Amino acid sequence: MEALGTDTKHGRCCVCMVKNKICTRKCEFAAYFPNEMQGDYEAGTKLFGTPNIIRMMKLAPHEQKHLLASSILKEGAAWIRGGYGVI
Questions:
Q1: For the chain, percent helix, then strand, then coil, each to nearest 5?
Q2: 11 within 8 A of 40, measured Cβ to Cβ
Q3: Average pLDDT for 19-43
Q4: Which one of 3, 40, 49, 86 is CB 3.0 to 4.6 Å from 82, fit for a cystine?
Q5: What are the residue boundaries of the LOB domain, all occurrences included (predicted)?
Q6: For residue 57, which of 43, 44, 42, 46 has the smallest C-alpha distance?
Q7: pTM of the prediction?
């Protein structure tokens, strides 16, 4: 299965924006958290925190990273909508 987004020409990925880093073509997070998903990523960050998201993504097997990224974004959005005990 393909990653969520693979084009970084539109700007930095969400992780690089939060970390205030330059997003290169070799960025390991750009494919999973493109800048078009900034709102969803911010919700995921409020729930998990950027350091934990980075840690989870680094520990996940390559074939599972797209599922993990999608889950982080969806759980963050659900948490923002409903708060505690929604999921």
A1: 60, 0, 40
A2: no
A3: 92
A4: 86
A5: 11-87
A6: 44
A7: 0.78
